[in-house]
Amino acid sequence: xxxxxxxxxxxxxxxxxxxxxxxxxxxxxxxxxxxxxxxxxxxxxxxxxxxxxxxxxxxxxxxxxxxxxxxxxxxxxxxxxxxxxxxxxxxxxxxxxxxxxxxxxxxxxxxxxxxxxxxxxxxxxxxxxxxxxxxxxxxxxxxxxxxxxxxxxxxxxxxxxxxxxxxxxxxxxxxxxxxxxxxxxxxxxxxxxxxxxxxxxxxxxxxxxxxxxxxxxxxxxxxx
Length: 224
Known about the structure:
By secondary structure, this protein is of the alpha+beta class. Helices cover 21% and strands 34% of the residues.
């Protein structure tokens, strides 16, 4: 049986909960006697809560086959949007938007979809609309990252939702990244938008399940 690898964003919380539940159950066992049935329920709740948090912050090992012509999924989840839109923050022109919704059950590590350099990063405070709301991409708390290489330029947007109240980004402007690298984390569910050139060939359909760092969501043509 493989041990669950815990992401660094969750290690402190897991240790805190482990110690908290241990102290609570020791106090109940030796200093505050209660009915056996209630004690069993408290133990079960402690184990369930700790197990859920460990599962949420799991960090599975992923192997990415680097390919300059492909765009890989930046997150685990479900494809909820594929459409041509006006991207108003950076490109200020039309792009193909592919959005991946992450439920609390998904792995929440965010991964780099193409290799390149980071010319632009910007964090935006905002609302906490449900992640599938049409306006969440422009009105929710979010973090925008642009990746550029010799052939293409794409934009990623990490979006917070109703439950997700912390977006983590590890990148800085001028960083060089490799396809499949970990670049961030969104706590407790939300979504990641990818804005692609109009000539990109989309390789997924609505409601498809994708894996960050592995599933190919599009193939790219060299920009002229």
